[in-house]
Amino acid sequence: NTWTDYDDQYLMIEALPNGVVHAPCPPDLEHFGFELHRFRRLLPERLKAWKEHLSTWDAHGKRVVLWGGGSKAVAFLTTLGVTTEVAAAVDINPHKAGHFLPKTAHPVVSPDELRELQPDIVLIMNPIYRAEITEMLHGLGLHPEVLDVETALSVLQPA
Fold first, then answer.
1. The whole model's pTM is what?
2. I want to staple 110 with a disulfide (CB 3.0 to 4.6 A). Which of 45, 65, 72, 97 is the partner?
3. Cα(105)–Cα(73) distance, rounded to whole angstroms?
């Protein structure tokens, strides 16, 4: 059985270990192929745009943090080759704070530590938490620009 879950962010697959389950073919395989081609075409320009925005923010002294210290943050940073352009990753899991992201070694901080960091821009790795994160930031007395990585490029002006 296949389905999407978590606000359509994940493709879920359920299978039996000792049997064969035939999942139905996606209803619109042609559309899937179109989307795959579109992704391959748009990826280089989106990567370039993110690199330019992060570089411009860094050049203007803007402190950027990522909200989410998991696999999405690691993939974002490693795919872009980001180093000093991002100050830290924020995670509400207290077991992650005080540690570092794999590969990039960006520090993982708790939300409370943002008072000291004073971020100008918070990039949210998972947009379904935008309202909750914004409320938490305001509760900390912080009012940075809050963007999510899925839609930010559509609202940002070219770097």
1. 0.81
2. 97
3. 12
